[in-house]
């Protein structure tokens, strides 16, 4: 223990979620570092979890064993003290008693008697019984600053929560609600700020710690925006190409198979770009149990002309028209969407690509064929015959792609580190409504200009600083509860 580092012991009954609270606060989803299990008694000794920035420890949490015999321990302490209310000296005598009786209680009280503050974790969904009252009394006798944490297992308050709050309010300096399996960044920060209200001795360093947490989060958001820029540039510029042999040009069935094979390649390469993007984001936000998938077969398109699609992802038709007018886009392209599409798997790609690509080839042999979704088919002369696919002709393609990423980003931020189940990051698990149609008009105009340069294969570096700022702002909006 150090007088310079504020320390808080996380205490409570077995299986109340003490370790899960620490894991979520510290963003640790590794059972080797913070063991979380439905089996009672997994934490059998005190475990230190420091909060470190730039090599310096600013804050320390101690995960402790749970109370196992609180009523009997309370009576033993009262017997040691005699008449009146016990205090720290009686608790020290209790700790120094020989024998293995009350081993868990002694281990959890040791850091408190060395000066640690109390984070008492309870499940307000359980009835308030005498053994919980005994725990509260023992913790009150330590004389240390005390914060009670109502670790809800259900977002809806239970019938006993008011009773818990009333009793805890009479014994603890402060009571706060916290769901270790659902808490987002703003809730973690709120719990850290609650420490300021109970611990006056270390106020300067606690304030500095909170500032460092906020700075770290801002830096992560900026890194995420850089990752997003890299992904959008790669995805909007993605093209796949195949060489056509003489028989491919002459036989329609072979041309169709070639086009379908090329479409599958495009699906898989776009999925792989998304997987790399999300792997990087998961690393930034310290997730190991949340995985990104890269399955090209998920990219089965839905016609962008359908009303359902237009109400969920990307910009509205009116917004696309306005953006095109402001950026000099061709209005005729806006509604030529027959080869565009949207995936409910990993975001966006071309719908019905196989049949759409095959349609380009109808009409017999086409020497020196080159097909491009945006430019159509051009004929020429020469030795080489090639087929090029990408990017889709739909003007909504970049916006739906961006919506897919932002929705998955939201899912990453909503995943608490106290969970220990593995999960696949998929658009199936996120809300259907996107974000881009709620962007300010100046942000949409800026992004549309940059999208056009990326689609043309020549991203404009002069726009990138403003695009970076726009994406940082968008990510901050996604973070809001």
A few lines on this structure:
It contains 17 helices and 14 strands. It has helices at residues 18-26, 70-81, 88-96, 103-113, 130-141, 161-171, 185-198, 203-236, 246-250, 252-284, 307-310, 317-327, 331-334, 353-361, 397-414, 441-455, 464-479; strands at 7-12, 47-53, 56-63, 117-122, 146-151, 174-178, 240-243, 290-292, 302-303, 341-342, 370-372, 376-378, 386-389, 423-425. The strands form 5 sheets. It has a 6-stranded mixed beta sheet with strand order 2-3-1-4-5-6, with helices on both faces.
What this model shows, in words?
Helix 15 packs across helix 17 (464-479). With 481 residues, the chain is an alpha/beta fold. The protein folds into two domains: 7-201, P-loop containing nucleotide triphosphate hydrolases (Rossmann fold, 3-Layer(aba) Sandwich), CATH 3.40.50.300; 217-479, no CATH class. It starts with 6 loop residues before the first strand and ends with a helix. The chain has helices spanning 18-26, 70-81, 88-96, 103-113, 130-141, 161-171, 185-198, 203-236, 246-250, 252-284, 307-310, 317-327, 331-334, 353-361, 397-414, 441-455, 464-479, and strands at residues 7-12, 47-53, 56-63, 117-122, 146-151, 174-178, 240-243, 290-292, 302-303, 341-342, 370-372, 376-378, 386-389, 423-425. Strands 2-3-1-4-5-6 form a six-stranded mixed beta sheet, with helices on both faces.
């Amino acid at each position: 223990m150090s007088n310079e580092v504020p320390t808080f012991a996380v205490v409570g009954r077995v299986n109340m979620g003490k370790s899960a609270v620490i894991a979520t606060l510290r963003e640790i989803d590794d059972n080797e570092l913070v063991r979380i299990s439905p089996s009672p008694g997994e934490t059998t000794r005190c475990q230190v979890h420091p909060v470190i920035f730039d090599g310096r420890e600013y804050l320390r949490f101690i995960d402790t064993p749970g109370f196992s015999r609180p009523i009997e321990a309370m009576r033993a302490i009262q017997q040691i003290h005699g008449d009146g209310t016990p205090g720290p000296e009686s608790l020290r005598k209790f700790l120094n008693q020989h024998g293995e009786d009350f081993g868990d209680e002694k281990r959890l009280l040791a850091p408190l008697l060395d000066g640690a503050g109390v984070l008492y974790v309870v499940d307000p969904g359980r009835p308030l019984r005498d053994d919980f009252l005994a725990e509260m009394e023992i913790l009150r006798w330590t004389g240390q600053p005390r914060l009670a944490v109502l670790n809800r297992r259900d977002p809806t308050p239970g019938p006993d929560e008011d009773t818990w709050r009333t009793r805890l309010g009479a014994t603890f300096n402060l009571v706060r609600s916290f769901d270790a399996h659902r808490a987002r960044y703003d809730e973690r920060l709120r719990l850290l700020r609650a420490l300021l209200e109970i611990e006056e001795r270390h106020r300067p360093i606690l304030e500095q710690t909170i500032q460092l947490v906020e700075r770290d989060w801002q830096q992560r958001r900026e890194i995420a925006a850089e990752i997003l820029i890299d992904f959008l540039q790669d995805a909007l510029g993605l093209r796949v190409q195949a060489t056509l042999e003489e028989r491919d040009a002459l036989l329609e069935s072979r041309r169709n198979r070639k086009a379908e094979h090329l479409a599958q390649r495009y699906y898989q390469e776009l999925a792989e770009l998304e997987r790399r993007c999300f792997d990087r984001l998961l690393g930034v936000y310290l997730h190991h149990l949340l995985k990104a998938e890269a399955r090209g077969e998920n990219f089965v398109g839905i016609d962008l002309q359908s009303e359902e699609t237009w109400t969920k992802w990307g910009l509205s038709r009116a917004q696309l028209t306005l953006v095109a007018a402001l950026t000099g886009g061709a209005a005729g392209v806006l509604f030529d969407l027959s080869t565009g599409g949207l995936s409910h798997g990993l975001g966006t790609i071309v719908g019905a690509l196989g049949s759409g690509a095959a349609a380009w080839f109808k009409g017999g042999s086409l020497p020196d064929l080159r097909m491009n979704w945006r430019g159509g088919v051009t004929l020429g002369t020469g030795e080489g015959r090639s087929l090029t696919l990408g990017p889709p002709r739909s003007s909504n393609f970049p916006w739906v792609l961006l919506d897919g990423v932002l929705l998955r980003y939201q899912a990453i931020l909503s995943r608490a580190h106290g969970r220990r189940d593995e999960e696949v990051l998929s658009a199936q698990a996120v809300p259907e409504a996107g974000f881009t149609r709620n962007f300010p008009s100046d942000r949409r105009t800026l992004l549309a200009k940059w999208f056009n340069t990326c689609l043309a294969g020549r991203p404009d570096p002069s726009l990138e600083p403003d695009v970076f700022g726009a994406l940082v702002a968008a990510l901050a909006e996604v973070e809001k509860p």
